[in-house]
TrEMBL record:
<protein>
    <submittedName>
        <fullName>Aldehyde dehydrogenase iron-sulfur subunit</fullName>
    </submittedName>
</protein>
<dbReference type="InterPro" id="IPR012675">
    <property type="entry name" value="Beta-grasp_dom_sf"/>
</dbReference>
<dbReference type="GO" id="GO:0051537">
    <property type="term" value="F:2 iron, 2 sulfur cluster binding"/>
</dbReference>
<keyword id="KW-0479">Metal-binding</keyword>
<dbReference type="InterPro" id="IPR036010">
    <property type="entry name" value="2Fe-2S_ferredoxin-like_sf"/>
</dbReference>
<dbReference type="Pfam" id="PF01799">
    <property type="entry name" value="Fer2_2"/>
</dbReference>
<keyword id="KW-0001">2Fe-2S</keyword>
<dbReference type="Pfam" id="PF00111">
    <property type="entry name" value="Fer2"/>
</dbReference>
<dbReference type="InterPro" id="IPR036884">
    <property type="entry name" value="2Fe-2S-bd_dom_sf"/>
</dbReference>
<keyword id="KW-0411">Iron-sulfur</keyword>
<dbReference type="GO" id="GO:0046872">
    <property type="term" value="F:metal ion binding"/>
</dbReference>
<keyword id="KW-0560">Oxidoreductase</keyword>
<dbReference type="InterPro" id="IPR002888">
    <property type="entry name" value="2Fe-2S-bd"/>
</dbReference>
<dbReference type="InterPro" id="IPR001041">
    <property type="entry name" value="2Fe-2S_ferredoxin-type"/>
</dbReference>
<keyword id="KW-0408">Iron</keyword>
<dbReference type="InterPro" id="IPR006058">
    <property type="entry name" value="2Fe2S_fd_BS"/>
</dbReference>
<dbReference type="GO" id="GO:0042597">
    <property type="term" value="C:periplasmic space"/>
</dbReference>
Length: 222
């Protein structure tokens, strides 16, 4: 059986130090690139810029206002809202679509904005927590969360509220959930129904009982 010393990739300490010294020395030479070392053309600043992702011009309808921006085509809606448009009410939690902190409304439906590319939403009506209400004129759901103390640290609250607003619209439209007793007709906004429909929004502070109470209040059942 071959020993580790027989492995073709094994470097001695002397070889490792020598190779490292060459790499450091060549990196200090102006204009020297690994492309040159391999016989290719040098990567000039212009060549590097040409290889960078191109920015995509977009017009997004945010909270009733047309917002024009240029983003990398890989930019998520969440990052476009926070980093480009500075609408920081929408929170980045897990960035994997698992916590619901980034929930916004798109054409009236709730989505996880961290899982959706900004480029997909040209022309869509996007509503963030900033568009639901403000300190002078609260949305009924925002007022209910305050009245029922439906939060603690507040980090997940924007996503909770946006999701809850969509929940009431879904119930009003007669859309059943996994726990609905019937598939048609009016639905009762029970605690079980709310917990099922809000299961995609996590609260690490465990303010769930008060969140349920707030949604029932906003839905006219409290």
């Amino acid at each position: 059986m071959a020993s580790d010393s027989d492995a073709p990739w094994r470097l001695s300490r002397r070889q490792f130090l020598g190779t490292s010294a060459v790499l450091v020395a060549t990196s200090a030479i102006p204009g020297y690139t690994f492309a040159q070392a391999s016989g290719g053309a040098p990567l000039t600043p212009q060549a590097i810029a040409a290889r960078l992702p191109q920015l995509l011009p977009l017009t997004l309808q945010i909270n009733g206002e047309a917002r024009r921006l240029k983003v990398d085509s890989r930019t998520t809606l969440l990052d476009a809202l926070r980093e480009n448009l500075h609408l920081t009410g929408t929170k980045k939690g897990c960035d994997h679509g698992q916590c619901g902190a980034c929930t916004v409304l798109v054409n009236g439906q709730r989505i996880n904005s961290c899982l959706s590319l900004a480029a997909m939403h040209e022309g869509d009506a996007i509503t963030t927590i900033e568009g639901l209400g403000n300190a002078e004129r609260l949305h009924p759901m925002q007022a209910a969360f305050l009245a029922k103390d439906g939060f603690q640290c507040g980090y997940c609250t924007p996503g909770q509220i946006c999701s809850a607003v969509a929940l009431l619209d879904e119930v009003k439209a007669g859309m059943p959930s996994h726990v609905s007793a019937r598939l048609d007709g009016p639905m009762r906004l029970s605690e079980e129904e709310i917990r099922e429909r809000m299961s995609g929004n996590l609260c690490r502070c465990s303010a769930y009982p008060n969140i349920v109470a707030a949604i029932q209040m906003a839905g006219g059942q409290a």
